[in-house]
Structures are given as C-alpha cells and as structure tokens.
Amino acid sequence: MATLCSQLRRAEDFANPNQVKVVVSRRAGRALYFSRSPIPYAYDFVGKVDDVWVAANHCHRHLGLYAYKADFLEKFTLMSPGRLEQIEKLEQLRALEAGYPIAIDFTEDPTIGVDTPGDAAKLEQWLQWASEASAENFLRSYLFCVGAAKDSNFSGLALFD
Questions:
Q1: Do residues 24 and 60 lie in contact, with contact meaning Cβ atoms separated by under 8 Å?
Q2: 35-39, 45-49, 105-109: least confidently modelled range
Q3: What 3-state class would DSSP assign to 30?
Q4: Are residues 29 and 65 in the same domain?
Q5: Which of 7, 34, 51, 116 gets the highest tally of CB atoms within 10 A of its CB?
Q6: Segment (H or E) for 13
Q7: Domain stops at, among 85, 106, 127
Q8: Cut 0.90: pTM above it
Q9: Looking at residue 80, what DSSP letter applies?
Q10: β-bridge mates for residue 34, sequence order
Q11: Residue 26 and residue 92 share a domain
C-alpha cells in the first residue's frame, strides 16, 4: 500500500480535523501514523502553533490517494476495522494496525480536498473558474492566430496553450 502527502503550511489547516495529518519516517519512506488531530503535538507550545512553526516542523497533510497491489487489496477488504480506525474514522489505520507498512511519497502539486459540503462548494467554484479560464485562453489563442493569418497571409490555424 502506498499514498501521498504534502507539506502543511498553515496552522489553520494543521488544526482542522478534516485535514488528515500523517507523521512520516523520512528515512524509511513510511507512514508512522495518521490522525485528524494536530500531529506532531507541539508540547513546548501547549499545542498552540503558528504558520511558521507548522512549516518548520515537517507537518504533513495526507492526500487520500492510494496505490495497492491486487493481493494486498484483497486481504485489506477482508480485514475488520481496528480500534484506531473506528476512533479516527481513517481506513488506512486498518493496514497499520494489522502490521502492514504504508509507503509514502511527497508532492508539492496543489490539490483540493473534498471532505465537507463546504469543500465541495469550493471545488465547484474552482471548476467553474477553470472552465472559464480555459475558454478564455482558447479564444485568445484563436483570435491571435486569426490576427496573424490576416497580417501575414498565413492560411493555416494553429491552436496552442
């Protein structure tokens, strides 16, 4: 089993239970634990942290994208949810509780998590913006090519982004 995570940068996201956090063994490339709680806990600051602390202390957000080998996936579907999975409501804890490692890699690619109705509304807004931006870029490219054709007796049309 494998998954992805990204660096958290904002204390607001670190405290949000809908942003699943993961503690990672960088040396082993494995997830140590997943939680809805802010982990690692900032003991010296009684848990009260700012954006600078979050960015400086390797706080990671789990992206919820998994890769499985077929034989593991078959075993996983037969496993009963463990105590930690039932408490946190995080299915990946089932694998950790059963003793299976979860390989983890890091990405800086931006993502949009959809965990709440508010997140779904944000995604819908972003998709609307993206489709309008794409249409606008297409139109600009088309007008540029048409303009170039008029100015240079160019007879072809090339679209580009």
A1: yes
A2: 105-109
A3: strand
A4: yes
A5: 34
A6: helix 11-15
A7: 106
A8: no
A9: P
A10: 22
A11: yes
DSSP 79: S
Distance, in Å, from the CA atom of 52 to the CA atom of 2, rounded to the nearest integer, reads: 29
Average of per-residue pLDDT across 13-39: 94
Per-residue burial over 67-104, b = 16 or more CB atoms within 10 Å of its CB, e = otherwise = eeeeeeeeebeeeeeeebbeebebebbbbbeeeeebeb
Q: Rounded CA gap, 102 and 45, in Å?
A: 30
**Domain range spanning residue 132?**
114-161
Residues 53 and 119 in one domain: no
Residue carrying structure tokens 């954006």: 51
102 and 142 both lie in a single domain? no
**Which amino acid would we find at residue 33?**
Y
Please provide the average confidence, as pLDDT, over all residues in the chain. 83
Asked if the model's pLDDT at residue 51 lies above 90, the reply is yes
